[in-house]
User: What shape does this take?
Amino acid sequence: MRGWRVVMTRRGPETAAVPPGSAGSLRLLGAFELRVAGQARPAGPIESRILALAGIHGRPLTRKYVAATVWPLASPARAAARLRSALYRLHRMAPSLLRRGGEAGVGLAAGVACDARELERWARSVVTTDDGAGGTGPERTGVLLPEWGDPWVLLHRERLRQLELEALEVTSLRLSAEGRHDRAAAAGRAAVQLGPLRESARRVLIRALGAAGRHADAAREYADYRARLRRELGLAPSPHLDKVMASLGVLPSRDGDAPVTSQR
Amino acid sequence: MRGRGLEVRPVGRQPAATELRLLGGFHLRCRGRTVAPPTSAQRLLALLALHGTELSRGFVAGTLWLDSNEQRAAGSLRSALWRLRQTDPGLVETSSGSLRLSDVVTVDVDRMVAASRRVRAAGSLGQLDDDLFAQDLLPGWYEDWVLVERERLRQLRLDALETLADRLVGIGDYRAAVRAAMAAVRCESLRESSHRILIRAHVAGGNYAEALRQYRIYASLLQEELALEPSPLMQDLVAPLMRR
Assistant: This one.
């Protein structure tokens, strides 16, 4: 009884009644995969796109929006008709995947888990609160639907990537501030793996390594970043990174690299 | 047990009020329960919510039933009002000649407008719920009074987000600046000024590779959707990064 009360007040009646994942799970990170009752289910390109849209947004979408996104070149009437038949096919394939009551919009049913949604929820909770290191991270991370070329996927992919990177960097900085340098370095390392050419990720990692007394590792990270940036983009690190290196007592030489000039 | 659980309300908060969401679609919750009034009642409620003030019956009927004559429009209004009362008697306050949304109804548009003002005034991203900023007003509704409001709200939040992102770059909070600019891009994916601010935020934070990556995403979207090239302003912005 008491347990119910706690769950209800924290998560709201709609989500608490059905545990996430009980009706199926949708994987969008790294690759698309749909599982229902523990079994992988094949889904055609159209069905996959509808499920992915619903999963990424995490709230019901109007049919018009879904139709216009999935069939940007079709006339509204044609797109609406195609959507109707795709929703019918989805319903035949797995009736518990989408919310009931199509009038309210297209959305995943309460019991369907989605890894991209979990990742976003975690990252958002880290970057919008001022304390805590985000608890345990999400179960899965990775690039959103890396093989899909749809424009809307491109935008969500980058948005989610930036959000995850920000969350990892913020987590690393908070752990550093608490003196937990090894965990701070691990979070920084995860950010660097996601964005090897991203300087702010390198900076938090280098700071964490420096704070842990691992100056040789910090210098190695610096050298690796600098070499990559020069090889791939022909650019030199920014003054922000120079400052971090100077604070560690390592004064980088410029070797004739020209810094990027101010952009305004 | 479940039934009782559902009625438990969070301790120390107001009793679950009536919540109307118009961003991202019409969604009404009365006393913690989702309800779906008929279309005519939805339109009436949305119009009252968007205006916020008292409206004359004549104005409401004329706006919602543009193509009917006065008498028929008044009749349609009476029936919509009746349906709304069937949904929940406390949604609308009526007096002889006018209607207004009851104070117990909270509206997400109001929250979004207040958040835009706060953002512009304080320049703090803080708890900014960029989901609140990502959604359009009543997508799929094509009446004039909705279109005008949709555009106004879109401009309002784009201005707020771009101003905020600029200011965050100014105070050196590049991560938050990127998030604010990204929210603007999410509102309107082909608006170049938002992409430029996003790219500037990356560059100012020393993330040159991220800036180039965003530039390429923008350029490919623009090519794909409109077969256009980025403007000279944009090209000048990224030129110093294009060494190879």
